[in-house]
Amino acid sequence: MKKVLLIGEKLNYSESPKIHNIISKYINYDYTYEKIELKNINYINDFIKNIKNFKDLIGANITTPFKEDVYKCCNVITENSKISKSVNTIKIENNKIKGHNTDGYGLLYDFKRLNYYNNKKNDILIIGLGGTSRSIIPILYKNNYNIFLTNRTFSKIQYIKEYFYKFNIKINIFEINNIKKKDFDIILNATSSGIYNDVPNIDSNLINDKIKIYDLYYNFNKDTPFIIWCKKYGSLYNNDGLGMLVAQAVYSSNFWFNLNLNENDIDIILNKFINKN
């Protein structure tokens, strides 16, 4: 049987195998989806370089913290990954590793589903600068969002601002403890803080009853630590990254199997997953 891998550092919480079980039945194609947990980032280069030798392997999803490292190991890169220099999906094709990124498309689907998307410019504060942040910024900017970025290490976002400017993508940056703007439409937590039952160190005055909160991390059937913290300070519109996770999984399946599943298909698969759990 053909197989797909999920490669990351901490995968105990992942719902991806369950999602792909539903996708497999939905597209009527049998494949297994197996987790490979690498505890040391030093192993990832050798692992990816040898991945072509895995029997019956179609490809893999890449998650925290390896998206930027795996990008460097790919033989072929799709256009959106070239801009972000980050991959969350690889495909083994003609004995080459082809890198792609479905995170931005997955997030945009979920923003539309949750009414976090409209025709006016939306000011979005993104907290954290990992492979996922890099991959969602170009898609959000292209779809009428004003990007504001903060991170624990300010020098990193200074570099990212200059890097994306080369692609005519304009980003506003703040030090994490000195965010001067106070009236964002959306705050998105792109840090890995939820994995460690923690929250990013931002000013609670940024939170109010009109702002929309989105946490890329997810806890099925319960709030993430960040959402709990935001509710404490008055937020009423709170959502985690489960919808994005399902959407990017569907878009990854399109990439692996040459399919054309769309937003209506994602709605069906997401509902099947929610009802099953």
Explained architecture:
The chain is of the alpha/beta class. The chain has ten helices and twelve strands. It has a six-stranded mixed sheet with strand order 2-1-3-5-6-4. Strands 9-8-7-10-11-12 form a six-stranded parallel sheet, sandwiched between helices. α1 links the parallel β1 and β2. The longest helix has 16 residues. The mean pLDDT is 93.
What features would you highlight for this structure?
single chain; 277 residues; alpha/beta; six-stranded mixed β-sheet; six-stranded parallel β-sheet; 10 helices
Task: Give a short synopsis of this structure.
With 277 residues, the protein is of the alpha/beta class. The chain has helices at 16-27, 44-49, 67-71, 79-84, 103-113, 131-142, 154-165, 225-232, 242-257, 263-276, and strands at residues 2-8, 31-37, 57-62, 76-77, 89-93, 96-100, 122-127, 145-151, 171-175, 186-189, 212-215, 237-240.
How are the secondary structure elements laid out?
Layout: E1 2-8, H1 16-27, E2 31-37, H2 44-49, E3 57-62, H3 67-71, E4 76-77, H4 79-84, E5 89-93, E6 96-100, H5 103-113, E7 122-127, H6 131-142, E8 145-151, H7 154-165, E9 171-175, E10 186-189, E11 212-215, H8 225-232, E12 237-240, H9 242-257, H10 263-276
Parallel strand pairs: 1-2, 1-3, 4-6, 7-8, 7-10, 8-9, 10-11, 11-12
Antiparallel strand pairs: 3-5, 5-6
